[in-house]
Amino acid sequence: MPRYIIQLPHGSDRSVCIRAILAIERHGSHLLTNAEWGCKAGVHCGWAIVEVGNRQEAIQLVPPEARRDAVIVELNTFTKEEMAAWVAHPDG
Questions:
Q1: Which of 7, 43, 86, 87 could be disulfide-bonded to 71 (CB atoms 3.0-4.6 Å)?
Q2: Which of 20, 4, 19, 21 is nearest to 57 (CA)?
Q3: CA quadruple 65, 71, 36, 52: dihedral sign
Q4: Percent of the chain, pLDDT > 90?
């Protein structure tokens, strides 16, 4: 099953952080228990890695009011041979 990282950026004001967390809580999202947050370190963003069937399923985990700013990236791994091929042929 594909894995995606969901990035949830938000403003640095504490009230904005609280609104972001409350939106996730209201959404009943899988993200509430699986997100990692950078707010205490001054990086106002949350991240979660999820296994879902496709990108659309990943975005559905994000509260509607946060979807516009969410970044969703499908993750992949490389074998040693695939990395060597990328290095040997950087243009594709």
A1: 7
A2: 4
A3: positive
A4: 60
Q: Which long-range contacts (CB under 8 A, 24 or more apart) does 78-82 make?
A: none
pLDDT of residue 23: 86
Residues 49, 52, 56, 60, CA torsion sign: negative
Q: Can you tell me the distance from the alpha carbon of 70 to that of 17, in angstroms, rounded to the nearest whole number?
A: 14
| Nearest alpha-carbon partner for 39 in 19, 60, 61, 68 | 19
All structural domains of the chain with their residue ranges:
3-88
Tens digit of pLDDT for each residue in 22-62? 888 888 767 778 889 999 999 999 999 999 999 999 999 99
Taken as a whole, the chain contains a residue count of 92
| Residue with the two structure tokens 């975005």 | 59
